[in-house]
Each structure stands twice: as C-alpha cells, then as structure tokens.
C-alpha cells in the first residue's frame, strides 16, 4: 500500500448487510460496490470480507485518494451519490467510516 | 498493499487515547505502538491519524499477516501481551478491531 504522504487519504468502511449471508441479493450489492472503483480518483480499491469476532461487521472496503479534493470529488460524483441514495441506505444495516492520513 | 490472497489477513485497529491531543504522553504511547512492528510476522505496518468526522477515533493502525497462524503467534508474542496488559488497557479510551481477508 502506498504510504499516506503528502495529503494522501485512505477511506475505509466496514459494513453489514440487510441481506442473508450468501444470498443473491448480497452478491448483487457487492457487485454494485465493486463498480465504485471506476469513479475517477479512486486508487488502491479493495473489497474484503470482515472476519473479526470482535465486531458484527461482515465486509470491508478500502480505497485511497491523492488528496482531500479528490476524495470530495468522489463523494460528489453522480455515480457515488446515486449508489448511496439508491442502494447503500436501503441495503446496509450497519456501517462505520474511517479515514486515515499520515500521522 | 499486497492483495489479501491465500489466507493473508489484515488486522486494523482504530482508537482514541485517554491522553490530551499532542501531549507527551500521547507521543510516548504512539512510540510504543510503533515498536509492535518488530514482532515477527508483522507486515505492511502503518500507524496513522484518523480524520473522519463520522467517528470519535483519533488514530489508526494496520498490519498484515501471511496467515491466521502467524496472526495468532503475534497475538501471543510476549511483547504484544505485555503491551496490551501494561499500556493498551490503561491508555486507550475507545477502540475497534477489524480483521479482513479476501472476499
């Protein structure tokens, strides 16, 4: 992973879904998440399974942006706005966002 | 960041400290966290600042292990056990652990 220097920011989200584990609805949602990688400015994108017994999340997502302006552009991109409004809010039962930069 | 294939696991922690922001005690704790990187099996270690307004954590830590057995060895290593017992429990006010693997 590139080090978080010069304003670089890592945006991570852990989440659980309203859909049953292994369901087609879960798979369809994860496919939709994976498509976020195509939004301009997204780097180092990974969609992962969350396995710690110390929390109730099921999936993790991480991506990086060169700087806060690129991150803002991602947040405001029509594809991201639509995804959040049309899918995230309805299909995610719990989540946490974490943004990290160089110490 | 290496992809999480073949049993590889990423261990991440977000946390806040009982110490005031920018204090010497905070700096000393972060130095102690940084020394965990020397424990055998730790890869891709990063200690970061957490900046999202959507949570109250202040710092983030991430590391990777080649497989669950290496992660267990880290957890059981005397330096890690001592760090948790002697420092983490006393100086961390809130934290969340997240472990991720390939989807």
Describe the structure.
The structure is a homodimer of 103-residue chains. Chain A starts with 8 loop residues before the first strand and ends with a strand. The mean pLDDT of chain A is 96. In chain A, strands 2-3-1-4 form a 4-stranded antiparallel sheet. The first copy, chain A, is globular. Chain A contains 3 helices and 4 strands; from the N terminus they run βαββααβ. In chain A, a hairpin with an 8-residue loop joins β2 (43-50) and β3. Chain A has 103 residues and is of the alpha+beta class. β4 of chain A pairs antiparallel with β2 (43-50) of chain B, so a sheet runs across the interface.
Looking at the chains present, what oligomeric state does this protein adopt? homodimer
Count of helices of chain A? Answer: 3
For the largest interface, the chains and their residue counts are: A-B, 29 and 29 residues
Q: What is the distance, rounded to the nearest whole angstrom, between the alpha carbons of the first and last residues of chain A? A: 16 Å
Kindly report the average pLDDT value of chain A.
96
Shape of chain A: globular
Number of strands of chain A: 4
Class computed from helices, strands and strand pairing of chain A: alpha+beta
Per DSSP, what share of the residues of chain A sits in E-state strands of 2 or more residues?
25-35%
Instruction: Tell me roughly what share of residues is in helical segments of chain A.
Output: 25-40%
**Rg over C-alpha atoms of chain A, rounded to the nearest angstrom:** 14 Å
Strand order of the largest sheet of chain A: 2-3-1-4
- Describe the main β-sheet of chain A briefly: 4 strands, antiparallel
Low-confidence stretches of chain A: none
Strand/helix succession of chain A: EHEEHHE
